[in-house]
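Entry 14. Ran structure prediction on the chain below.
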Amino acid sequence: MSVLEKIEWVYPPRHGPEWGSGGIFGLRYHRGVLYYTLAFEAKAWFVSSSDVYVYEFEQVGKLPTSGGDTYNAVDAVDDELFFGGWVHAPAWYMGRGEGRRATVSFADKYSHVHRYIISEQRVELLWKESIHDHKLWAGEVSEIIYDPVGDRLLLARGDGHMNLGVYQLGRRGGRASPVTRRPALKGTLFYDHACFDVTDDPLQGVSGVQCVDLVEERAFTLEFNDTAGMSVDGSPAFHPVAGAATHSHGRFFLFVRGGVFVGNPLDASLERLVFIRLFDFGESLYAPRRTMAKPVAGGVLVAFNAYSEALLHPSNELEERISRATNTIVGPSVLLYVAPPTARIVAVFGARITGFEVVDGKLLVATNNNANTSRHDALPLDAGHRGFTLLGMDTVNAQPPPVLFTVRGWQVGARVFGGVPLYGYREPRLTIRSTKQNRLTVYTYSIDLPPVEPEVDKYAISEGRNTLDLKPHKPGIVAFKLEREDHGAIIRIGLD
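Output, structure tokens:
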């Protein structure tokens, strides 16, 4: 019997005190076992062709637990599968206060790393940590990278209030010790280094890349002092919140809100790190957040999510702005396949794609229809419908599906936005319902390695409805910039 015949395909809302909805995380198929963690129920699944084992994180603390993992912290080597994240053990829902604002206590929130021994079908807790505070928590484990040189685990910790940075942990457990003190969310092996983002300020996003030399066991940081100077289109990255990282074609790829940083962070003389704009819709959290980027079919497959995080009950002016931005849906989630110099939309989904994995020659995609919410938006249950969708591997070479993006003028102002791949589409177009006369600049580029300057075209925009045929810009990626801010404008990018 195939592993795919033994998984549960749909997970409706169930008990799991946390914020909004979690998802299916950590998808990894290794030596005939499919692992994933269901958050916020805090259940780790290990599915083989002959057996299904579910672990409820009871080794961390008292039941009922909640949480588990919401960043895809997993790696595998030999007979072992390592998985991490965070878990409430037990979970404490504190209830609603004034204005329906609700919270969960962090007093028993633990960061964790486990291993699953495949031949023994056994889970073992390697490490856990909590600061036992009702409002603060220790850095979650958001990435696990096995270091084959030092035979250790490198852990990214960037979501939390204490003990942030890149940490190391032995394969058999023990004490987790810091390698760097700069907060990090995602990373990947890159040649004989492990490279991670630097996220000192989660709202502002990535401010650099930090790399650990696996041979000499030292770390260094490349600061992003000028993202406009790094950008292919000459304009800065706007709130480049960390999403997912991988490596391919001899380059490091760090996907963020608004695009991707790609190049060689180890040696700028070989190729400097550049920023290429992708799906940048301004004041929107349309982003490769809480998802994956993986090598597939010799290229890179990555998801950009429509509704991965949201704030429902703002308590100040900044939160009101964040709430408006995160709850304005600009388009569906997409799977993007990058095979430089091309980038192509290969699948369209709903609110979120939390992970994907190749299993038995098929592409298994984990989805969710609700967001991970914020601050005062806690619930006693997971509010999302989570599940799996199965695609054929020919998806990465199929005709791109139709898709529509709707952007409001207040979201983009007079900044560069877009970064929408036209590859494979027959009738791409842009329409603008403008409240004033304006000029639109169109940048056309590809994921060229090394980078090439974009083509630049300018178009006059009249008050009222304007339609721009984008076929002359095929098969590139297109980004746009309005000369004058038009907060009342409605911009639609339709791809058929």
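The chain has two domains: 3-398, 405-495. Will compare against last week's run tomorrow.
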